[in-house]
Amino acid sequence: MRFISSFATFICLTATLISCSRNADQEANLSDLRCEYLESPISIDTQTPRFTWTYSGDSGFTQDRYTVSVASAEEKLSDPDIWCSGAIVSAAPFAIMPDTGLLESDRKYYWQVKAWNADSTQVLKSEPEEFRTAMMDRTDWRAHWISDSHGKDFAAAPMFRKEFDAMEKVTSARIYMSACAYAEVRINGELISDSVLDPGYTHYDKRNLYSVTDVTDKIKDGANVLTAVLGNGFYNEIEPVATWNFENARWRDRARFILELHLTYSDGKTTVVPSDNSWKTTSDGPYLSNNIYAGDTYDARKEIEGWYSPGFDDSSLANALEVPDPSPLLVAQKMPQIRITEEIKPVTVTSFGDTAYVFDFGKNISGICRLKINGEAGTEVSIAHTELLKENGRTEPGNIDIYYKTIPGYEFQTDNYILKGSGVEEWSPSFTYHGFRYAEVKTSVPMKLGKENLTALYIHTDLESVGSFECSNPLLDTLWNMTRRTYCNNLLSIPTDCPQREKNGWTADAYLSQEIGLLNYDAILFYEKWLDDFIDNQREDGRISGIIPTSDWGYDDWIGPVWDAALFIIPYNLYLYYGDKTIIERIWPICEKYLAYLKTREDPDGLLSYGIGDWLSYEAQTPTDYTSSLFYYYDYRIMTEFSFILNKESSSLMSNMERLRNAINKKFYNPETGVYASGTQTGQAAALYVKVVPAEEIPKVVSKLEEFVKQNGGHLNFGSMGSKVVLRTLTEYGLKDVAYEMASKEDHPSWLAWIHDGYTSLGETWIMSPKFNDASLDHIFFGDISAWLVNDIAGINKDDLAPGFGHIVISPHFVDGLDWANASYNSVKGLIKAGWKKKGEKVVVDVTIPENTTATLKIEGMPDRQLRSGKTRIKTRLPR
Question: Which string of b and e fits 147-165 if b means at least 16 CB within 10 Å?
């Protein structure tokens, strides 16, 4: 991290090619145009949408200036009636529309980009793109929130229906829907989308998200019926089944929803079908109960014949109740929805008599199971989900159910289905998800089950994949894929710590794994949503909780500033990867208030002495007063960067930063030995990582870090913080082979030992306790090694002086023990590739740089090379 006052401080690098291939026939084109980072979105609810684009081709085009136009009709783009940016001199393919107040709710708009190179010899113009607004204000809604007459402790789910007529040809139809917590909506019995657990989880009394779905193809001429069934999620934790106090959440209430169906006919007329007290409701259906930790119980015998068909006689049913808005904010959900991304067949099925079967799906996932079964009416089937098996082959929940308080009728991670006895029946739960590899199916009567009877459905927030990595060590490739899976397993509208026992948004877990996410997935909208949850989470005194969202749990001192640093680290990483300062502008006042709170918590040394630090370390213990103080300093470093980015006053921030640096070095650093705090791998690396070490002391501190690693036989000896900083710091300071030796260890403690132990996702602890205690097999916070593989082995890196990959740093490391490595990353500027392969005493490096950017190639022992867009191949001797 380096301080920057403005982009003007960035010196453009001249292009010196070593070996470059360019196809003159591949002219540059404007491509990948997005509004609010979405392709042709229908959910824009801001007057200041952001526009981004990239350049395809291989002509060496560099943007010098651009114009963005927005119009209410495609033919008006030549003389836009909504907004024209004018010629903006910038190399960044990014624009924000100012607040004109002209964008109306539920309207389609068109936009277009025109761009020039410096001498105007290349002028590019995009095809028109479109976006549609959603509800620009709560007053634009005609619908009411509705529920039924039952209280929050009533277990059965409320069901709703509303018939409507489409008397003319419908040319367009959209549903706007929010729910607390989830709604499964159908038109004429057909689900309106492939999303599940919709909408996303928030502080339900602060803001609610609504989804927008195009349902044009689901509307029939004439009579139609809308139906909805609601799930509890974290909004209505019916029983005290977990530790985190959601059963006492201040927002807790009976499930509810709001919905509008907007119809446009061929003659231009429009109709809105809103949720209100004319809808009919019942809870006397098959959805007997649902619980986010336990599971769903469904009695197919109670399905209501004709419920999903127009003409059903619902006159005897109660009318829905119009209920108050749960929060003051109703906001369009822009992050991708949770979806089924893969169907997984079992690899083995083991029977234990004729009423119990264990299905092994081969890998740990987040999701549910789809049951396919044929039996007599009233047959009860339970499906229990675990990560482990007992020695006898039955499922073992002991490592994940430790926080679960068993209550009658609610078993942890267990779904229940009661057959109606009408031939082959298929069912999957609607309002829960589990973390599991194994599923144990029990039946109330003898039945013969096989692989065809149960399918695992992998569900998570469906982010677009943008990264890849492979190398000559197949175990590291396996680890890379395990890391990706673990990241997705913990991506359910918030970044979670684990998908089974907690499902909580632990703050440090999220920032420790963020660069894994950003290098693998297009994740900006996901993290921006979660940072809105930070805004809603902050208390009046400035503190934030260790899990976000939360009802009230997690504000305790024992969690503290190392975890809270997510408030600074996550938006800063978004800025560096996307070049967009919008989220920093939004989070700035929250950060200011938080730093003011930390000021009140300083000890007599002016530092912080509360909280946790290198969580779940293998053996070595790094003092938490040291790590808390380091991250207090780190907060100020990032906040100072924010002040430069936003052109705000920075002198007091820099003064506090220097004060903290001096206090940390005075209290925790021994200049005679070069050791920080208690002398651990984490202690040395973290000081170097946050840049608290005086320049003249760096060689001594690095030498001690190397010594501590070698004294431990090259093995790691740290926890969550060390997993982020040790490999990166070793590599940064010239100890790449020491870092790779640690990364490639296969005995305990190591990442690769997990593979030999049979893990298919990353563990919460380096070694599983024989008594299980407190360790899941699906935690992401040790996973930064996979980001390190991309950054420091393959060599793809952002340049902090040119955020949004306005300039790229390619810095591969040809470590002993690897013969080759390749990586790719589809950045906001386009596709970046970097790879190398050893050939005897030489190495061949291949790099691809997208249009409209440049790169610096850094190879140990060689002068830096400046690269322009296109493909470059370099052959050189291996550094000695």
Answer: bbebeeebbbbbbbbbbbe
Distance CA 741, CA 735 (A): 10
Question: Which has the closest alpha carbon to 821: 787, 794, 860?
Answer: 794
Task: Report how far residue 473's alpha carbon sits from residue 457's, in angstroms, rounded to the nearest whole number.
Answer: 30
86 burial level (CB within 10 Å; 0-12, 13-18, 19+): exposed
Give 238's pLDDT tier (boundaries 50, 70, 90): confident
pLDDT at res. 409: 77
Continuous H helices in 136-228: none
Q: CA-CA distance, 504 to 736, in Å (whole number)?
A: 35
* Residue 281: both structure tokens together: 């409701």
Is it the case that residue 495 has pLDDT exceeding 90?
Answer: yes
Can you give the pLDDT at residue 658? 98
Q: What tens digit of pLDDT does each residue of 283-294 get?
A: 999 999 999 999
Please provide residue 640's backbone torsions phi and psi, each rounded to the nearest 5 degrees: -65, -40
Q: How many residues does the chain have?
A: 880
Compute the average pLDDT of residues 373-398.
Answer: 96
Within 10 angstroms of residue 746's Cβ, the number of other Cβ atoms is 12
Element at 241 (helix H, strand E): none
Per-residue pLDDT tens digits for 181-207: 999 999 999 999 999 999 999 999 999
Distance, in Å, from the CA atom of 852 to the CA atom of 834, rounded to the nearest integer, reads 17
H helix or E strand, kind and range, residue 729: helix 720-732
Amino acid at site 22: R
Say if 339-461 and 467-794 have the same CATH topology: no
Determine the number of helices (DSSP H) and then strands (DSSP E) in the chain.
15, 46
Contacts of 639 (CB under 8 A, 6+ apart): 568, 591, 595, 653
- The token pair that represents 205 in the structure block: 């009394």
d(CA 756, CA 748): 10
CATH class of 467-794: mainly alpha
Helix (H, G, I), strand (E, B) or coil at 75: helix
Q: Please give the sequence-ordered ranges of beta strands (E in DSSP) within 724-810, or none if there are none.
A: 796-798, 807-810
Beta pairing partners, 365:
436
13 pLDDT higher than 60:
no
What residues does each domain of the chain span?
28-132, 141-334, 339-461, 467-794
Q: How far apart are CA 151 and CA 399, in angstroms?
A: 34
Q: Which helix (H) or strand (E) holds 699?
A: helix 698-711
Q: Domain 141-334 carries which CATH code?
A: 2.60.120.260
Determine whether 105 is exposed, middle or buried from the number of CB atoms within 10 Å of its CB (0-12, 13-18, 19+): middle
- How confident is residue 774, by pLDDT bands cut at 50, 70 and 90? low
Domain topology for 339-461? Jelly Rolls (2.60.120)
Give me the architecture of the 28-132 domain, per CATH: Sandwich (2.60)
Cβ contacts of residue 493 below 8 Å, gap of 6+?
197, 199, 200, 201, 335, 338, 461, 529
Query: What is the rounded average pLDDT for all residues in the chain?
Result: 95
Residue ranges with strand state E in 709-829: 796-798, 807-810, 820-827
* 851-860 mean pLDDT: 96
Of the pLDDT bands very low, low, confident and very high (cuts 50, 70, 90), residue 242 is confident
591: closest CA among 626, 550, 628, 544?
544
Is residue 11 scored above 60 in pLDDT?
A: no
- Can you tell me the distance from the alpha carbon of 855 to that of 310, in angstroms, rounded to the nearest whole number? 61
d(CA 587, CA 573): 13
Q: Alpha-carbon dihedral of residues 741, 747, 750, 755, nearest 10 degrees?
A: 110
DSSP string across 621-634: ---HHHHHHHHHHH
Alpha-carbon Rg for the chain, nearest whole angstrom, is 28
Distance separating alpha carbons of residues 536 and 800, to the nearest angstrom: 29
Predicted confidence at residue 410, as pLDDT, reads 83
Residue in the block written with tokens 């291949």 = 846
